[in-house]
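Box S2. Input/output pair 1.
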Amino acid sequence: MKTGKTFIMPPVRITPPTLEGQTESPKSLKEWLETEETVRGFHFSEHTEESINCHYKSITNCTFSHIQFSDCKLKSTHFTDVRFENCDLSNISLAESALFRVEFVSCKLLGTNLPETVLNHICMTDCNAQYLNLSMSKINQAHFSTCNLRNSDINDCRLTSIAFEHCELVESEFSHTSLKGIDFSNSHIEGIRVNLPDIRGAIVNTMQAIDLTSLLGLTIKD
């Protein structure tokens, strides 16, 4: 009899953003986007970006440091080689956008909307991303480390080479997203919402496995 082999998620090998030759921007991002299709090679720091509403723009080789984004919508925008550090991106919408080699470090992403996005080579570290919406997205080569992702929507996604390290995923939505080969063993996943076929092949620790028995309709009796 042949035995099935345990599926192992391909290793996560993040390519960091290439950030070279940046100069301090003399204008806000909103001012650039009002006149330019592509914003390239700037460092933005310590101000508020308000009421940006644009589509089909490109932001390349830029760093955003201590920026607060307020009431912003950047639909179908391409972000390439971009770093956000200590920024507040809460509730902004980046729907249907593409992010390639993008880092989020110590950022606030409460309720940030990224539905139907394509994310490649993404690193998110020490971020508060409760209620983050990644539904219906394609995510490849992504590393989430010490992030609070409670109540996030990661449903109907296609995940490839994903790592969650010491993350809070309590009550997050993973339905219709295959978790095969993803290691959750050092994260908190209590109350995650997932369908039984989707959780098959996920890597969990003993206590997590007990919590997930409810998906099988089992009752544990001591």
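Box S3. Input/output pair 2.
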Amino acid sequence: MEENIKEKVKQILTDYLQKNGHRKTPERYAILDTIYTIKGHFDIEMLYSYMAEKERFRVSRATLYNTIILLIDAGLVIKHQFGNTSQYERSYNNETHHHMICTSCGKVSEFEDETLKQAIVDTKLKGFHASHYSLYIYGLCNKCMVAKRRKNSKT
């Protein structure tokens, strides 16, 4: 199944590059392949390290940033803005999910809730046809909440 997804996204990228007059470079395909190996969110530094260590394929950070922009335009990657940081995740064949972001430590957790999904599907958006969505819930994770309680009980 995973190999089928990788072949499909390669084809989507090839079609996008041809249609938009971009070169089909080995770096772009290596970056795409690596992204579709990573589960969950990643940032550019994580992708850079992962490619250098695990994939043994070195590309510059500039190439990563430029390729990420292409992959977002091609609909293969989604960019999230969690507080002050940008993180990315693959978008093809990725189940709709929601995000909880801790405002203290910055930890991002994913969760799924069928009631929320259905409520969004059932929402009538006048004059608008939604293709996808992201839901971010900000608050404190359990670890930070416990630390806050401890701090408050000492004062």
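Caption for Box S3: The mean pLDDT is 88. The CA atoms of residues 42 and 64 lie 12 Å apart.
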